[in-house]
């Protein structure tokens, strides 16, 4: 049996999404910047996709800018927001994705900003009192805090963060890559200036994403070279990826309630079985359904010989999982997120992440293999 439990890294493309993309590939190939009929057809498809995304998020189409994915969107929000508003102080957490952390670190190293890190507890929760302190004791800040941690699954109350940012006139960027399509986002109500999306996290194609920029914010492009995306991103649009992204998000919203029930059921079932079958198993991050992303379960296993071979052994058994952030998979560098929350480095950690395509039979198979590995 082959079992894929690394959906926080990437997901398989939904067949409905593929159908939509294939139709475009076979029938509409014009350059969307061309004024002839072939170009106009493709431009219409892009704008239809933009409208679909905007309507689902309760945003305006003019606030949606298509990108190559979440990393570019994060960079665009952070770099352009800080540069165009002359911001000298930024706040983030050490548990953020490297797309955010490395961008801030580069800006700090070049002397553009002073960077502060808000405290987190041992489960990855943001210390809101400390965030308030950082905002009140510094000049206007740029705040970047993710909705759900990609390794732990711990959710942040982004409504509360948005309220604090509004109180101190801070710009708020939220990496919503892991929660887009899994939770509804009402951008008319949420006090946020930037959010990001990567299509491949919600059964869409790789290489496509978007940045939402609140209408009250005006920024300059990160990538120059053309007038695409209303002069906000140079380069011919990834038409097939954009169409696939919109379809994937449409499906996600259409089926959200049923998929959440199914996936949360898989996560809860696996957690209960692990607690029953493996002595001294623990969990990193929040696991309460109200505080944790239902697609992610980070498991801390007892110290064992050859702990560094656990993921490899799972792979040999046909089970794909991750030891941390997908962007660090395959490296020998430990998880910066687990280090930030003070996790025991002697205990091997595995992130299992689920999708609508996983089954209870796959969970049972994985548990049996884990029992054998932990007993050896």
From TrEMBL:
Extract the Pfam families matched here: Aminotran_5 (PF00266)
MF terms in GO: cysteine desulfurase activity; iron-sulfur cluster binding; metal ion binding
Q: What is its EC number?
A: 2.8.1.7
Domain (Aminotransferase class V): give its ranges.
3-365
Q: Does the keyword Transferase apply?
A: yes
Q: Which cofactor does it need?
A: pyridoxal 5'-phosphate
Q: Which reaction does it catalyse?
A: (sulfur carrier)-H + L-cysteine = (sulfur carrier)-SH + L-alanine
Give the Gene3D superfamilies listed for this entry: 1.10.260.50, Aspartate Aminotransferase, domain 1 (3.90.1150.10), Type I PLP-dependent aspartate aminotransferase-like (Major domain) (3.40.640.10)
Q: Which key words tag this protein in UniProt?
A: Iron, Iron-sulfur, Metal-binding, Pyridoxal phosphate, Transferase
Which parts of the chain are coiled coil?
Answer: none
Q: Which InterPro entries match?
A: Aminotrans_V_dom, Aminotrans_V_PyrdxlP_BS, Cysteine_dSase, PyrdxlP-dep_Trfase, PyrdxlP-dep_Trfase_major, PyrdxlP-dep_Trfase_small
**SUPFAM superfamilies in the record:** PLP-dependent transferases
Asked if the Swiss-Prot or TrEMBL record annotates the protein with the keyword Iron, the reply is: yes
Q: Which family does it belong to?
A: Belongs to the class-V pyridoxal-phosphate-dependent aminotransferase family. NifS/IscS subfamily.
According to UniProt, the name of this protein is cysteine desulfurase
What organism does the UniProt record list as the source? Arcticibacter tournemirensis
Higher taxonomy: Bacteria, Pseudomonadati, Bacteroidota, Sphingobacteriia, Sphingobacteriales
């Amino acid at each position: 049996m082959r079992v894929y439990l690394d959906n926080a890294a990437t997901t398989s493309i939904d067949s409905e999404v593929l159908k939509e993309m294939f139709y475009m590939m076979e029938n509409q190939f014009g350059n969307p910047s061309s004024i002839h009929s072939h170009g106009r057809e493709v431009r219409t498809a892009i704008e239809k996709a933009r409208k679909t995304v905007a309507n689902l998020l309760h945003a305006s189409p003019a606030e949606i800018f298509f990108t190559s994915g979440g990393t570019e969107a994060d960079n665009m929000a952070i770099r352009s927001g800080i540069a165009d508003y002359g911001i000298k102080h930024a706040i983030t957490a050490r548990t953020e994705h490297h797309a955010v952390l490395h961008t801030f670190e580069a800006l700090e190293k070049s002397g553009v900003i002073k960077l502060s890190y808000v405290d987190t507890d041992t489960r990855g929760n943001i210390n809101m009192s400390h965030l308030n302190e950082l905002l009140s004791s510094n000049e206007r800040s740029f705040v970047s805090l993710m909705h759900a941690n990609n390794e732990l699954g711990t959710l942040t109350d982004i409504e509360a963060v948005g309220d604090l940012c509004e109180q101190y006139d801070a710009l708020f960027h939220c990496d919503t890559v892991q929660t887009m399509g899994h939770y509804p986002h009402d951008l008319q109500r949420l006090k946020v200036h930037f959010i990001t999306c990567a299509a491949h996290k919600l059964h869409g194609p790789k290489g496509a994403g978007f940045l939402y920029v609140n209408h009250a914010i005006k920024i300059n492009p990160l990538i120059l070279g053309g007038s695409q995306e209303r002069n906000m991103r140079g380069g011919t649009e990834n038409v097939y990826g954009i169409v696939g992204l919109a379809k994937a998000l449409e499906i996600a919203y259409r089926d959200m309630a049923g998929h959440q029930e199914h996936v949360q059921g898989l996560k809860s079932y696996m957690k209960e079985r692990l607690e029953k079958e493996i002595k001294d198993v623990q969990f990193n991050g929040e696991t309460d359904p109200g505080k944790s992303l239902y697609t992610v379960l980070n498991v801390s296993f007892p110290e064992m010989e050859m702990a560094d071979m656990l993921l490899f052994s799972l792979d040999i058994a046909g089970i794909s999982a991750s030891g941390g952030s997908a962007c660090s998979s395959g490296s020998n560098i430990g998880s910066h997120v687990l280090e930030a929350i003070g996790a025991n480095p002697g205990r091997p950690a595995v992130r299992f992440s689920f999708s609508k395509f996983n089954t209870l039979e796959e969970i049972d198979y994985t548990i049996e293999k884990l029992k054998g590995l932990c007993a050896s």
